[in-house]
Design brief:
14 helices, elongated, 6-stranded antiparallel beta barrel, FAD/NAD(P)-binding domain
């Protein structure tokens, strides 16, 4: 009896996890991973600044699923089958221990993504998975006797055709519609891909002059798209970044795309303090420290450099002391502290993540097995699906979960 043949197109996190799971579940299965580039697991290698944010420390599946702007409902059931704790145990069983940082992100204790890459490569080889680099798939067709025929772009015009019983597409995010054409050729429709997890370009000279300054808790909002998020904010040479901006960009990926990434952004630098208390504090300072220069006495927890620029942006001169602060200036300063408005003029993709939303429609996939509802024997895993998570390990967990389910299903005897 011939062994079952499985081909995985895509040598990234989801593809490797599916291939390993399938080969370990049914040892006599012939599993082959086809990677079009000259290196496996490139995104794993560079993610998290070279540390690889493997998953996130949250064992409440509903809370975990809520971190996916697209895919929350679809992932609820899969996460009940393979969740964060399963990921931790999987890597631990293969000699890789993970650690949890204060914000919940989980990394290998080595702080090196190469640890994860080596683990996946070793596990694949130990399971007998065939690994092929520089193997670009040109087309996929249904075989005459069932299964699939996979045609590789040949060297020197000579093509190679492989056959398989089960096929997994794990080719990564659809940064362009063309990236999902294998799925389309097999009957699937794609949700249009647009960037998610990006930072904002802002031309304000005084803001850019503060590059490197961070605020532990800020609130940002885009009224044009009914978006609002709160969290750490980082000022950069090109504008604004940090977790709160990345979250806002993820939830607003499609809406901000429709605005052509040009919109007014409002920043509340002191979201934990009410507008009334801020006003009271400004009045108190005018009464208790009248001789001090306003520019030299920041309201905590604002960084001194940021406070200085907010004072100047409110139209208050460097020489103004608290005793000379007029009611109009007090109001303008309070407005700057709670409603600074910037004109966003563009975006930059977050280099460690470069996530897109869009991809294979979730309604066309059975999330118990990750099998296509329109093309039997075809499975999906990872970012090729219209699933994307917030930064913090959620996108990798989606890759492990969907890869594990697909691998188990492809190994199951039909």
């Amino acid at each position: 009896m011939n062994p079952r043949r499985v081909i995985v197109v895509g040598g990234g996190a989801a593809g490797f996890f599916a291939a390993i799971t399938c080969a370990e579940a049914l040892p006599h299965t012939e599993v082959t991973v086809l990677e079009k580039t000259g290196r496996f697991l490139d995104k794993v290698r560079i993610s998290g600044g070279g540390r690889c944010n493997v998953t996130h420390d949250c064992d409440d599946q509903r809370k975990f699923a809520a971190r996916y702007p697209r895919g929350e409902k679809a992932l609820l059931s899969p996460l009940s089958k393979f969740e964060m704790r399963d990921t931790v145990e999987w890597f631990a069983a293969r000699g890789v221990k993970l650690k949890t940082e204060r914000d919940g992100r989980m990394f290998p204790v080595t702080d090196s993504s190469q640890t994860i890459v080596d683990c996946l490569l070793q596990a694949a080889r130990a399971a007998g998975v065939k690994l092929r680099l520089n193997s670009s798939v040109e087309r996929v067709t249904r075989g005459t006797a069932g299964g699939f025929e996979v045609t590789l772009a040949g060297v020197g015009g000579v093509q190679e055709t492989m056959t398989c019983d089960r096929l997994l597409l794990a080719t990564g995010g659809c940064r362009a519609v063309a990236a999902g054409q294998l799925a389309v050729s097999l009957g699937h429709a794609l949700e249009a891909p647009v960037p998610s997890l990006f930072t904002f370009h802002i031309e304000s000279p005084w803001l850019r002059g503060l590059a490197g300054v961070s605020v532990e808790e800020a609130e940002v909002s885009v009224s044009d798209a009914r978006l609002r998020e709160r969290g750490p904010l980082l000022i950069t040479h090109w504008g604004l970044s940090g977790p709160v901006i990345l979250r806002l960009s993820a939830w607003g990926a499609r809406a901000l795309h429709e605005l052509n990434y040009q919109f007014p952004l409002c920043v509340n630098w002191l979201p934990l303090v009410s507008a009334e208390k801020i006003s009271d504090e400004l009045i108190l300072r005018r009464q208790t420290t009248p001789a001090k220069l306003i520019i030299n006495t920041p309201l905590p927890p604002l960084p001194a450099r940021l406070w200085e620029q907010l004072v100047l942006a409110a139209g208050i001169s460097r020489e103004t002391r608290w005793a000379a602060l007029s009611r109009t200036q007090q109001h303008q300063l309070a407005q700057q502290l709670t409603r600074t408005e910037f004109a966003v003029t563009g975006k930059s993709l977050n280099k460690d993540e470069f996530v897109t939303c869009g991809g294979v429609r979730l309604s066309e996939v059975d999330f118990k097995t990750m099998e296509s509802r329109v093309c039997p024997g075809l499975h999906f895993a990872g970012e090729l699906l219209d699933i994307d998570g917030l930064t913090g390990g959620f996108n990798f967990q989606a890759a492990w979960t969907t890869g594990w389910l697909a691998g188990k299903a492809m190994a199951a005897q039909s």
